[in-house]
Amino acid sequence: MSTVSTRPPEGRYGRSSDERADHKLKIAGTVLAVLLLALVGYFAYHYVGQNKISAEVIAFDAGKDAVQVHLEVRKDAGASGYCTVRSQAENGAEVGRADFRFTGDATRIDKVVTLRTTSPGTTAELLGCHAD
């Protein structure tokens, strides 16, 4: 005796409901992945592409009531802005914070700035730069 199959013959009646659901899920996943990629690209462009001034701390020399900070600033020609630098004491408390302005046509500026502190600072940290 043979057993009767309850499945219809392959390809005779179109896709099964599971195959249709899988296809819809693949389309939805692809659309969401494209949207996520576009969102990441948008934020990356505005973070990197629109930043007209950036800097890094090359060296610093901590003193009793001030910290000498050597900054290297890179900016667009003619752009002006400021960089915020802070210093912390040995226990982590902030002892000084200041904004230093950079203007002019130069695209690269090496400058030593003096950050006055309320007590001896042990660090010099660049918090960020902002274009005007």
Structure, described:
The chain contains one helix and six strands, in the order H-E-E-E-E-E-E. It has 132 residues and is α+β, with helices and mostly antiparallel strands. A hairpin with a 3-residue loop joins strand 1 and strand 2 (66-75). The protein is elongated and about 95 Å long. 15% of the residues are buried. The model has no long low-confidence stretch (mean pLDDT 85).
What are the main properties of this structure?
alpha+beta, three-stranded antiparallel β-sheet, 132 residues
The side-by-side strand order for the widest beta sheet comes to 1-2-5
Strand content: 35-45%
Straight-line N-to-C gap: 88 Å
SSE arrangement, N to C = HEEEEEE
| Helix vs. strand class | alpha+beta
Q: Please give the largest β-sheet.
A: 3 strands, antiparallel
- Given as residue ranges, the uncertain stretches (5+ residues, pLDDT < 50) are none
The geometry reads as elongated
Mean pLDDT: 85
Brief synopsis:
By secondary structure, this protein is an alpha+beta fold. It has one helix and six strands, in the order H-E-E-E-E-E-E. It has a three-stranded antiparallel beta sheet, with no helix packed on it. A three-stranded antiparallel beta sheet has the order 4-3-6, with no helix packed on it.
What's the structural blueprint in terms of helices and strands?
Blueprint: H1 17-49, E1 53-62, E2 66-75, E3 81-88, E4 94-102, E5 108-116, E6 125-131
Antiparallel strand pairs: 1-2, 2-5, 3-4, 3-6
